[in-house]
Amino acid sequence: MESEIITAYVGIGSNLGNRAGNLLLAVRGLTEASFIIHRLSAVYETEPVGVPNDQPNYLNMVAEIHLSNISPSQMMARMLRIEYLLGRRRIEPKAPRTVDLDLLLYENQIIETDFLTIPHPRMHLRNFVLVPFNEIAPQIVHPVLNQTIQEICQNSKDISKVERWKPVIEENNLVTGNS
């Protein structure tokens, strides 16, 4: 019997250390966790939102993932493990992080438990999620707001800066940001 293929969307971010390398390691971690990466947005450099102002800028992207036989809670547990393996420690809320994985949507399911809320409760308020999400899946409908990602993105009141990241190769071959 064939299992149903589920589509989920994951936000990926980093603002500590080698941010681009952390994104790459997070994508690799997702594939090693039996998630099939179907599409990835470009990488965007973004201002920190909802955190202390003295934090470094983030690199953010969104992944469209296909999976089967993995529940939303199992998916979230695997994502938390990836974060942990990549050095994220949840000691201080809103602290800078090596990697941040957010389960944005899981098909059109609406889930609210102590462990997991889907759709992500703040995704519609954050351009750092909406801009890359809109790049890869503008016609996906938010199951609570009943608007497409494109409509939500166009009507966003978030004024934070979100720019497509342009890596710079320095003499020692390290990739750095354009900020």
Helix/strand layout:
Layout: E1 6-14, H1 19-32, E2 36-40, E3 44-46, E4 58-67, H2 72-85, E5 100-106, E6 111-112, E7 117-118, H3 127-136, H4 149-154, E8 162-164, E9 168-169, E10 175-176
Antiparallel strand pairs: 1-4, 1-5, 2-4, 3-4, 3-8, 6-7, 9-10
Question: Could you characterize what this model shows?
Answer:
The chain is an alpha+beta fold and 179 residues long. It has helices at 19-32, 72-85, 127-136, 149-154; strands at residues 6-14, 36-40, 44-46, 58-67, 100-106, 111-112, 117-118, 162-164, 168-169, 175-176. It has one domain (6-168): 7,8-Dihydro-6-hydroxymethylpterin-pyrophosphokinase HPPK (Alpha-Beta Plaits, 2-Layer Sandwich), CATH 3.30.70.560. The chain is built from 4 helices and 10 strands; from the N terminus they run E-H-E-E-E-H-E-E-E-H-H-E-E-E. The strands form 3 sheets. Strands 1, 2, 3, 4, 5 and 8 form a 6-stranded antiparallel beta sheet that branches. It has a two-stranded antiparallel sheet with strand order 6-7. The longest helix is centred in the first third of the chain and has 14 residues, at 19-32. It is globular.
**On the 0-100 scale, what is the average pLDDT?**
91
Total number of strands: 10
Order of H and E elements: EHEEEHEEEHHEEE
Helix-strand category: alpha+beta
- Tell the overall outline: globular
The main sheet comes to: 6 strands, antiparallel
Number of domains: 1
C-alpha Rg, in Å? 16 Å
Helix content: 10-25%
Proportion of residues in extended strands: 25-35%
Uncertain runs are none
Which architecture does the CATH hierarchy give at level 2?
A: 2-Layer Sandwich
CATH fold naming: Alpha-Beta Plaits
Please tally the helical runs, counting DSSP H or I stretches of 4 or more residues: 4
Our measurement of the CA-to-CA distance between the termini, rounded to an integer number of angstroms, reads 51 Å
